[in-house]
Amino acid sequence: MTSVERLAEICGGTLTGPWEGVEVTSAAIGSVDVQPGGLFCAVPGLKAHGASFAADSKAAAVLTDAAGQRIIDDAPTPLPCIVVDDVRTWMGPVAAEIYDHPARQLKTIGITGTSGKTTTSYLVEKALLDSGEKVGLIGTTGTRINGNPIPTSLTTPEAPTLQALLARMVSEGATHLVMEVSSHALQLGRVHGVHFDVVAFTNLSQDHLDFHPTMEDYFQAKALLFERTEDGQQPGTAVICCEDEWGERMRAIAAKHSPTVALYPQGGSHAGEQGAPTWSIADTEVTPSGRQNIRLSVTGGDGAARELDYSIGMAGSFNQANSLVALACIEAATGEPLSSDSAAVKALADVQVPGRMQLVEEGQEFLAMVDYAHKPGAVQAVLSSLHDYLPAPEARIGIVLGAGGNRDHDKRPIMGRIAAELADAVFITDDNPRDEEPSTIREAIYAGAREGVHKKQQQQPGGETVCEVVPDRAEAIAAAVAWAKPGDAVVVAGKGHEKGQLVAGTMHPFDDVAELTAALQQRVQSTHSTHRAHSAQSTHSTHSEGSDQR
Fold this sequence. Notes:
Elements: E1 2-3, H1 4-11, E2 14-16, E3 23-24, E4 26-28, E5 38-41, E6 59-64, H2 66-73, E7 81-83, H3 87-98, E8 107-112, H4 117-130, E9 135-139, E10 142-145, E11 148-150, H5 159-171, E12 176-180, H6 183-187, E13 198-201, H7 215-223, E14 237-241, H8 245-255, E15 260-264, E16 278-286, E17 292-299, E18 305-312, H9 317-334, H10 343-347, E19 358-359, E20 367-371, H11 376-387, E21 397-401, H12 411-422, E22 425-428, H13 438-459, E23 466-469, H14 473-483, E24 489-493, E25 500-503, E26 506-509, H15 512-549
Parallel strand pairs: 4-5, 5-6, 6-7, 8-12, 8-13, 9-12, 13-14, 14-15, 15-16, 20-24, 21-22, 21-24, 22-23
Antiparallel strand pairs: 1-3, 2-7, 9-10, 10-11, 16-17, 17-18, 19-20, 25-26
Helix pairs in contact: 1-3, 3-5, 4-9, 11-12, 12-13, 14-15
């Protein structure tokens, strides 16, 4: 139990109401989630202030701002309040105190970036588990403790929920935490109160411009992970993927606060730049099945060099970059140099991530996969990578593509244009339209796709690109499967691991992998039936000819 007086000392808050002798045992941001004897973190909302619900909660005390305090003071039953200027800044450190600072008892790795967070976190988790560690994971596909799933709803939970999760991980014996850290979480203070031993940056491309007004604002939100926080938390070693200007800028920011490790997925000579360790991909071999054999060149800050050889079972050059980030994080977390024979390095060979370049095989004669790509950079990366796996120059790529409603509007035509430029067929459909009119979203993607088709025709006269709008997502997947010929590739993009389709406030069951599987099975069965029919017809014709001859 922690006294509210102690919590007020931590955040510099003012105590009001009958606070003497009051102690709390838990914390929550939702009034219905507050347990008896808990602290209610009441933040201002879009429609109402959270403090409006304090009287009906089971809270023993409330952390709020001046506006929240006035609401509580007017309630029939006054509650003890800790009043601060910004609740989101302090509810993390306060919750950390209540739960006995669980992050300090874990080796904590935080990963941010537009794409690759989930894949990288899976790689790090598997490597640590195979090395004998007990691992907690928090991210887009959910939360796990030593491989066992725990229900959560956000990529990075709200600060009180996060601290409670970390405490549970510690109680269940976890030694390490691997966590995706979203830009929303950083801007809203969800990870305040968490000390990170390792922080990593994968990349930056257009996304979430419904929340961030500009790309620069989006970048600065990501950069918060690599800076000292207002509550004094100092990040540990920073692992930065420096494949473009965003990465180089992030490295410069991180270097002001922490030791840095610079990563170069595209190779080149960067040994010991600015006296910092550097990792780069020296060589790759891509097998027909999509497995990638990779050689890394690692140079320490002292100039000493070594090589690492390993394999990953995931297609795509971007997964080479993800594995590079993962291995650098593992070495930074353990403090021990990795070798090609390390259990952590060997573990990467077997990692598969749901909905990320996930192959679906039902006996068809073409490549079919599901990927979470739902932003321009990710669509470009997936389609560019697929070109590396086509068996012949005449082989084609088809993509099923949509865009989420109530999200960044500007990226929709960009995604359509990129898809049409890099694919041979684009099937535009719905992808979680939420509260928007689905046809409006589809029209924006189609406009970009037509622009891409026009550009491609100018560069490659005579070429043909299929561009169809198929509103029903299952029908769009079936159309793409029907379009494909032997040797082609089809990718269903956007939803990845998700199991539902959110339309007008209702979540309808929908699974891209299941729908793609069903469409492939139907095609294979139809193909076999056709072959059997042709075979029977051929046999019948032969018998007839024999009768005539007799």
